[in-house]
Design a protein that fits this description.
heterodimer; A: alpha/beta; Rossmann fold; seven-stranded mixed β-sheet; three-stranded mixed β-sheet; B: alpha/beta; TIM Barrel; eight-stranded parallel beta barrel; globular
């Protein structure tokens, strides 16, 4: 069973449906006990970075997520779920001295797309793969996936980068380090290619 | 590079896809769930669904269709028709829509665009504009916004309304040409190009496509970011895979 973490950041049903479609058993949950039992964990999410961290904290999910990351079980962040894995984000609504802090499972910062680009990026764009990964096994370089975002992750250690996308700049659109995987795009909205990626993840959870 | 999008549109009434000409003479075209799933498999970049009878029938039927279509596809899903309030937008998003199109209600109360965009994010709010050509006393061409399924003129200029909507928070514009809809003469590229020059948000050409060349010209002449069509896809006059190959050869970036 794959646990999809529900923390009030967007509609999770499409992720659940896509997993069911590829033959995986998925459960939308807030319950740390379910996370612990799960064979794999998905952290989805759309919305603001600081609000997402506040919701995770309020739901008592920060420690259970760290435990899942450390347990070695497959973990997949989607969209905001990728950004939350990093240390800090430039997405903020105050001028305080500190950037909002994320989970810090990966070193690096979430940055806003440079001025002059149409933000958010909404639409289909391509993936390039700097290394071989389990998440993108069987996916052709140049495949299209669906993006909706204004911020992107800049890992401190570029070896974590599993996919690169160009949108005015080249940026990291996916990461994979051991059991920790995350994608900036929406696999559940990326048709055949997205379903293959979710199927690859589900296969790791068995 | 971002790709140009092909959007098959399902006009739904009482749970069935229908197609009429200039909002009249309506024919049955099939089951929305089966058709949406087939379009996803064939390479559609997004699916649009408009409830054409929403104001006269129960919303419950529509929400049920939206739920079933959303479950059957894995591409973005744009839903419109009879959206009157922030609560209507929320109900459709909750049912599985990724974007919601607002039309008449936004003309009557423009603040609805701002309220919905602030609440759900502008990328989820689409303004759909029904446009009709008019000629001024000096012979100059302009377009008037019409509402209620193309039956009621508003006096509002389309380009002014498009700019206002962008300011209010619309994330995308669908431009339906009432003059060209159903004629299979091509999109109103003059309309689309003029609106595109006036706004930064993506525009979707709608109404009038009859051939692959019309869809190509929607991009090349009308400068649309996406093209929407219904009957040419439903009745298999144009198929999506060969269409995309044709567009790629014309130098248009598409997802293959």
């Amino acid at each position: 069973m794959i646990a999809i973490i529900d923390y009030g950041m967007g509609n999770l049903r499409s992720v659940e449906k896509a997993l069911t479609y590829v033959g995986a058993e998925a459960v939308i949950t807030q319950d740390p006990a379910v996370l612990e039992r799960a064979a794999g964990v998905i952290l989805p999410g759309v919305g603001a970075f600081a609000q997402a961290m506040a919701n995770l904290r309020a739901a008592g999910l920060i420690d259970p997520i760290h435990q899942a990351l450390a347990s070695g079980k497959p973990f997949l962040g989607i969209c905001l779920g990728l950004q939350l894995l990093f240390e800090t984000s430039e997405e903020r609504f105050d001028d305080g001295p500190e950037l909002p802090r994320g989970l810090g499972a990966l070193r690096g910062r979430v940055r806003r797309f440079p001025d002059g680009l149409k933000v958010p990026q909404i639409g289909w764009n391509t993936l390039r793969f700097p290394k071989e990964t389990r998440l993108f096994a069987g996916i052709e370089p140049g495949s299209h996936v669906y993006f909706v975002h204004s911020y992107y992750a800049e890992p401190a250690d570029s070896s974590v980068t599993a996919a690169v996308t160009e949108y005015g700049i080249e940026y990291c659109s996916a990461v994979e380090v051991d059991n920790v995987m995350a994608v900036q795009f929406h696999p559940e909205k990326s048709s055949r290619v997205g379903l293959q990626i979710l199927s690859n993840f589900a296969a790791l959870c068995r | 590079m971002e790709t140009k999008r092909i959007i098959p549109c399902l006009d739904v009434r009482a749970g069935r896809v229908v197609k009429g000409t200039q909002f009249r003479d309506i024919r049955d075209a099939g089951d929305p769930v089966e058709m949406a799933a087939a379009y996803d498999r064939e390479g559609a970049d997004e699916i649009a669904l408009f409830d054409i009878a929403a104001s006269t029938e129960g919303r419950g039927t529509t929400l049920d269709v939206v739920r079933r279509v959303a479950a059957a596809i894995s591409v973005p899903f744009n839903v419109g028709g009879g959206v009157r309030s922030v609560a209507d937008v929320e109900a459709l998003l909750e049912a599985g829509a990724d974007k919601v199109s607002i039309n008449t209600a936004a003309v009557e109360r423009p603040e609805l665009i701002r309220e919905a965009a602030e609440r759900f994010g502008r990328q989820r709010i689409v303004l759909s504009i029904d446009c009709r050509r008019r000629t001024g006393s000096g012979g100059e061409l302009s377009w008037e916004v019409v509402v209620k399924g193309g039956t009621t003129p508003t006096g509002l200029d389309v380009i002014e309304w498009a700019m206002r909507a962008e300011e209010l928070g619309a994330g995308e514009l669908v431009l339906n040409s009432i003059d060209f809809d159903g004629t299979k003469q091509g999109y109103d590229n003059e309309l689309n190009r003029r609106v595109k020059e006036a706004v930064r948000i993506p525009i979707v050409a709608s109404g009038g496509a009859g051939t692959m060349e019309h869809l190509r010209d929607g991009f090349l002449v009308g400068r649309a970011d996406a093209v929407l069509a219904a009957s040419i896809f439903h009745f298999r006059q144009v198929e999506i895979r060969p269409l995309k190959e044709f567009l790629r050869q014309a130098g248009i970036p598409v997802r293959l």
